[in-house]
# Entry
Amino acid sequence: MNQKQMKEFMKALNSIVEEKGIDRQIVVEAMEQAMAAAYKKNEGISNVQAKVDDVTGDIRIYSYKTVVEEVTNPELEISLEDAKAQVEDIELGETIIDKELPLKDFGRVAAGTAKQIVVQRIKEAEKQSISEEFKDKEGELMVGTLSREDQNNYFVDLGRSSGILPKDQIIPGEKLEMGSSVKVYVSKLEIGPKGPFILLSRSHYGFLKRLLEIEIPELSDGTVMLYSVARDAGSRSKIAVYTEYNNVDPLGAVIGEKGRRIANVLKELKGEKIDVILYDKDPVKFITNALSPAKEVKVTIKNEDKKEALAVVNDSNLSLAIGKKGQNVKLASRLTHYKIEVKSENSLLESENKEIVE
# Structure
């Protein structure tokens, strides 16, 4: 190979490595395999190896022999004794270089074979590289570009791969524009023979959780801990936080003065409201906090094993405790992992009086 050819070869090699993001050695090995296959097809020789110098671009072709106990085909085999005279620690079944062969211009068919092998190996390596890059992304937040859509899904360009954002997984009421940047949560990831399958969401409670961790330093460094998240995407969410540090106010750390610290999260959620709740190890206190904005809530645990609780409020707080279409109590139940029944003081009293009469 002359200097000009070597230069072009190295340029092509570097371009493939950079564009595809795959290991340089994999590309070199693919080229070696392709060169050997082309030489075999062109010259009708089966025992051929190719060696590519990935620094200079120099290509050399060798014939080799297999080390055997008894030689039956001198063109393809060499005895262990003769092989050890050249390579002392060689063993049966291994191969040894016989001689260097002259480089020749390959025919059209042989060149086509070489190209096919290189393309296939590079595709396989690229899939493997992409799978490695994305394998730990499940449950994480990513930023992509909306590239196209069909009737049911948006397709998000994530760089070296793309993800599917179902239209029922966006925030209700939001409008997404093609070509715009979008934050997405990886709700499901499967690595298959064709590469990663990435399912995305913006309505998943994990989306809110990751947004909070990015925007609130105390959550990302562990000063404040996020106990649980309950979300009704596009409408309202509740998050429970706590801290092990006596000098830290977890609610204040998350909300910030005049809500400044949580402002970026609210902006991303397109008007969705967030109730920040103080977690407490005492389930009575925790459930009481979770039913905010209702006040004067009296909670009793009906069944600890079944996680059932009763919350009693006065008539003026009943609608707040239950919420519109039961939203507040549903979110509180999800947040605390308790099935919460809400009753007014009057209805409870009526029930008790009825039981006495009966």
Observations:
- The chain has three domains: 3-134, 141-201, 280-358.
